[in-house]
Amino acid sequence: MSDNTAKLSLGGETYEFPVLAGTVGPDVIDIRSLYAKTGLFTYDPGFTSTAACDSAITYIDGDVGELLYRGYSIDQLAEKSSYLEVCYLLLYGELPSKAELADFDNRVTRHTMVHEQMHYFYRGFRRDAHPMAIVTGVVGAMAAFYHDSTDISDPQQREIASIRMIAKLPTIVAMAYKYSVGQPFVYPRNDLDYASNFLHMCFAVPAEEYQVNPIVAKAMDRIFTLHADHEQNASTSTVRLSGSSDANPFACIAAGVACLWGPAHGGANEAALNMLRQIGTVDRIPEFIERAKDKNDPFRLMGFGHRVYKNYDPRAAVMQESAREVLGLLGVENNPTLQVAQALEKIALEDPYFVERKLYPNVDFYSGIILDAIGFPTSMFTAIFALSRTVGWIAQWKEMIADPQKKIGRPRQLYNGPVRREYVAMGDR
Ligand code: SDX
After folding, report:
1. Contacts by 324-332 with C-beta closer than 8 Å and gap 24+?
2. To test ligand 1's pocket by mutation, which of 362, 382, 393, 396 has the most ligand atoms within 8 angstroms of CB?
3. Which CDD domains does the UniProt record give (predicted)?
4. What is the pLDDT of residue 332?
């Protein structure tokens, strides 16, 4: 544990900055007065060494591969809890009593329908639009509908907006899927649990009764839990930065959806399954391992590596176990893609390139295998990630809005453009 000040020697002067300690994890050097004292900025593109806020929601220890939601480990929550219980935990900080969970479940259930006019937005998209393009647009469009829950200075309105987004994202994502396959939208049903309701809205058709497979529903619920929050990742930081200007809450979550779409972030689950299919068979793995190591080849092992985890992503471990269980129960345990994934992981984790760089499978490496077995097209994978992460974005947004120290986020830069110069008339150029 460091002492409580950091000293900076600069130009013959020594400056002192407080070192702040959290409950667990790295201490931080509070440099808020650095510019005022020294006239210098810090420089940290990609924020590899920057804590942008303090938070009490999610803790990650990347060295040991630990992930805690409000202090509870992800493997215990994945095994013993449910997604809605995890939503309650992330939002309010404690596991709910039976009555609290029933009330929360009821509040979410009664907000699952979207305004009927929102159906018209879908008609405006091409049928082959990527579901994430649709979800980004429709979530942003929620800002045009729910005027009674956009005054962010009112805690009650913040709460209603939060419940609406957690409740409606599955409906919006399921509608994007239905639109892409040319089937009619299926309304949510209040007699189904959260995961079953999502599966029913995706796979039911008017022509016949659709029975949700309880094994699949449990796997779906666990996938939601594994993706629910993850500290200050790129999309969460996007939501916080958007929210720091007191922007409309629905617009802030839409910004998070947009950021998550990138293949370096949440889009990696779609890219990982497409990569495993491109590899196709175990004997082609060495060819792709070499490509991933070749600096002249833009190819990377999708679903591998992480900014924080320098050990096995604990979510990937649970996801791999769940993949084996679900595929076995569905009678597709000899799924060739799972075999390629497991062989690829084994070979990569024995290769010095990956070992030296501490590159391990992350949450996106196995999730697509389960989603594919359930029947989703790869284009739906990131939309399902967005649905799952909505509660994390909202919990982090609520924490920021309620923070008495809240300030608009406004980073500076190291400028290396032209110094001041006079305008040159066209005739003199
Ligand atoms: C998510 O932040 C979060 O918490 C995100 C997330 C969440 O829940 O919100 O966990 C979800 O986004 C998981 C990550 C999904 N993305 C991928 O699987 C895409 C593939 N992975 C990478 O692009 C990469 O690992 C990142 C983006 C995830 C992390 O990149 P960093 O931390 O900026 O690391 P880097 O790019 O500087 O890589 C360090 C070294 C480099 O080699 P050298 O320059 O040192 O020689 O490792 C290499 C990289 O070339 N490397 C890889 C690699 N990932 C890193 N080489 C091959 N394949 C890879 N996947």
Report:
1. 325/219, 326/215, 326/216, 326/219, 326/370, 326/373, 326/374, 327/369, 327/370, 327/373, 329/215, 330/215, 330/216, 330/373, 332/373
2. 362
3. EcCS_like
4. 84
Q: Measured from the CB, is residue 229 less than 6 Å from ligand 1? A: no
pLDDT per residue as tens digits for the range 270-317: 999 999 999 999 999 999 999 999 999 999 999 999 999 999 999 999
Q: Tell me if 5-51 shares its fold with 63-402.
A: no
Contact of 84 with 112, CB cutoff 8 Å: no
Answer whether 74's CB lies under 8 Å from 68's CB: yes
In this prediction the pTM is 0.95
**If residue 408 lies in a helix (H) or strand (E), which one and from where to where?**
none
DSSP per-residue letters across 343-364: HHHHHHTTSHHHHHTT--B-HH
Give per-residue pLDDT as tens, 156-191.
999 999 999 999 999 999 999 999 999 999 999 999
Q: Is 231 left (phi over 0), alpha (psi -120 to 50) or beta?
A: left
Half-sphere exposure of 255 (CA within 13 A, CB side): 20
Residue with CA at minimum distance from ligand 1 atom 28: 306
CATH topology of domain 5-51: Rubrerythrin, domain 2 (2.20.28)
Domain at 63-402: CATH code? 1.10.580.10
Question: What are the boundaries of each domain within the chain?
Answer: 5-51, 63-402
